[in-house]
Write a structure and sequence with these properties.
Strand content: 5-15%
Number of helices: 6
Largest sheet: 2 strands, antiparallel
Order of helices and strands: EEHHHEHHEH
Strand order of the largest sheet: 1-2
Shape: elongated
Distance between the termini: 91 Å
């Protein structure tokens, strides 16, 4: 008794290589391949390959062969799709929260609070990715004012979520 295997030669959307593979494999590859390439392109602007590999694996993305990501596989995808590697830290247009905290000489929590309060514009490409802050944003007047407040030991004004809610305490600078 002979078995028939249906094979086709396809071009892998991730790496561009032509492979003899089954139709089952073809369906797995094409599900999120464009999404992965676009994600790698976005992340490569501010993250090195090791960080991108960690993000892809945490999100559960797999290669076409259902392998987890490693730096070699990521470099192959970047090279095949013309995605440049992350530039050195001093040439990047984006900084991470920890780099911004070092630049401002404040804690990571202060930077996180400024992002949450929309004082410091930042974006997160996907859930597990680091927050990216454009290099020009730390020079914004509102950001500089908040950093000055922190360095002077003053608290930022509380954000009242509900106008009917009254404060228990008032800041001495607001009296």
């Amino acid at each position: 008794m002979s078995r028939w295997n249906v094979f086709a030669t396809i071009e892998c959307p991730l790496c561009g290589a032509k492979e003899r593979t089954s139709h089952k494999f073809l369906l797995k590859v094409t599900v999120n391949s464009r999404e992965v390439i676009d994600l790698v392109r976005e992340l490569a602007q501010g993250c090195d390959d090791a960080a991108i590999v960690g993000i892809l694996n945490r999100l559960g993305y797999r290669t076409g062969n259902e392998n987890t990501w490693n730096e070699k596989r990521l470099q192959h995808v970047r090279h095949s799709n013309g995605i440049p590697a992350c530039p050195p830290a001093e040439q990047r247009n984006w900084v991470t929260m920890s780099q911004a905290a070092l630049h401002f000489n404040v804690s990571l929590m202060v930077v996180r609070r400024m992002i949450a309060q929309k004082i410091l514009p930042a974006r997160q490409v996907v859930k597990c990715a680091p927050w990216m802050i454009e290099r020009v944003h730390p020079e914004l007047p509102a950001v500089q004012k908040e950093i000055r407040r922190v360095h002077e030991g003053r608290r930022s004004p509380l954000i009242v979520l509900n106008n009917s809610q009254t404060r228990l305490f008032t800041d001495s600078s607001e009296v």
